[in-house]
Amino acid sequence: MKARVHVMLKNGVLDPQGEAVRHALGSLGFDGVEGVRQGKVIELDLADGTTEATVKDMCEKLLANTVIESYRVEML
Amino acid sequence: MRAAVIVFPGSNCDRDMAVALEAAGADVSMVWHKDAALPEGVDLVAIPGGFSFGDYLRCGAIAAKSPICKAVVAHVERGGFALGVCNGFQVLTETGLLPGALMRNANLKFLCKTIDLKVETSDSAFTEGYNAGDTVGFPIAHHDGNYTADADTLAQLEAEARIPFRYVENPNGSVADIAGILSENRRVLGMMPHPERAVDAGHGGTDGQALFRGLVGQLTAA
């Protein structure tokens, strides 16, 4: 089984990389991009029976820094 | 006074840190990240700058989970002293020993230059060799030094005078110009600028000497 973890900066935390991407899109002529937030996706190959609660524990302990980041777990 | 300098794969300021501490009179041992214990009788743990574990995942995140960091947390919880510089500051926030987090510099650039800092308090073993209001020049060399914390944490840091160093001209977008912070018991200091790179005339400046001399002096007297 697999799980996919999405890690994003929390709302309200300035994302300078997303801002740079937004500027670059604008300079390529893509008008109307009002905001870009950049995050990361982590795919986990897991032993059968691993629970979503265990994956959330992984997020809390390592995969996300919950001071500045939020996460979402997708069990596949 | 006994100091331990932690070495991770990717640390690159570990020897500079050891030289600075030794020059101030400390007895220094280097400790590998896989060790589970600190040497007997260590007063100060120094976590040096560098790019531990290639900055994978987040700066300092993997290092913070290494075996030696459990011992560092226990050392601090016993009331021991710790100094984290640059990547060391990032490791200290990732372990939770210091609040807040360090994000990518606001201008997205890797910054490598000597900058001016204002000393805000001499009330700590790290800063007792300075006077509040002093301006000191320390090198910075980082990509992720943009300090952030929630409003409550910031208010507490301000109220308890736990921001010993602020940037005179903010280079990286850090909230409240924060260059370094102290723990609640004032025995843990994390800072992005490098005092250990300003302890010899050959470095181009010696403003960092007072930090190491003050620290060694205080811990030797204790």
Considering DSSP H and I runs of 4 or more, what fraction of the residues of chain B is helical?
A: 10-25%
Largest sheet of chain A: 3 strands, antiparallel
Please state the overall shape of chain A, judged from the principal axes of the Cα atoms. elongated
What radius of gyration of chain B results from the CA coordinates? 16 Å
Number of strands of chain B: 11
Given as residue ranges, the uncertain stretches of chain A (5+ residues, pLDDT < 50) are none
Structural class of chain A: alpha+beta
Assembly classification: heterodimer
Beta-strand percentage range of chain A = 25-35%
The total count of helices of chain A amounts to 2
User: Radius of gyration of chain A in whole Å, from Cα?
Assistant: 16 Å
User: Could you tell me the mean pLDDT of chain B?
Assistant: 97
The overall average pLDDT of chain A, rounded, is 95
Shape of chain B: globular
Bin the strand percentage of chain B. Answer: 25-35%
Structural class of chain B: alpha/beta
Largest interface: A-B, 12 and 20 residues
Helix content bin of chain A: 25-40%
